[in-house]
Design goal:
The protein is mainly α. It is built from 5 helices and no strands.
Length: 141
């Protein structure tokens, strides 16, 4: 039993570390001149998926490696209602992401939605970390 908990802890910590790395990549895309909106969107979504998978892994909820945010929304919000707002804000953008990533030019509105998604994701990941034991934070010893 102890080994199972340790494996789950290790996997959750890895996923949370990945989420923070992807969030940093998203920030770099945001700060690039000019802003790399496609990179920003891609890394933001990857960061969210890794964070929510880490959250569910810690809670021993099986989730496929390629799970969408939509698939993770219900089990995450059942465990922590504080995450509901983030899913409400981000699910529409996830659904639209494939078409946005294919566009030659993004409208001002689309660019602003992608930029806002980054800030929402940053807050969502901070909330996920707050909902988990501090020992799971990737920087914990």
């Amino acid at each position: 039993m102890e080994a199972v908990v340790q494996d789950r802890t290790t996997e959750a910590r890895k996923l949370l570390a990945t989420a923070l790395e992807e969030l940093q990549q998203a920030r770099r895309a945001l700060e690039a001149q000019p802003t790399d909106y496609r990179g920003l969107l891609d890394h933001t979504l990857k960061a969210l998926k890794a964070a929510f998978r880490g959250f569910l892994t810690w809670h021993d909820v099986p989730v496929p490696e390629d799970a969408s945010l939509r698939l993770m929304a219900r089990p995450c919000t059942d465990l922590a209602s504080s995450l509901r707002l983030y899913f409400d804000l981000l699910l529409p953008l996830e659904a639209e992401a494939p078409s946005l990533l294919q566009k030659d030019a993004l409208s001002v509105n689309e660019r602003e939605r992608i930029r806002n998604a980054y800030f929402t994701a940053r807050n969502a990941i901070a909330t996920v970390l707050g909902e988990l034991p501090a020992s799971l934070h990737p920087t914990a010893a």
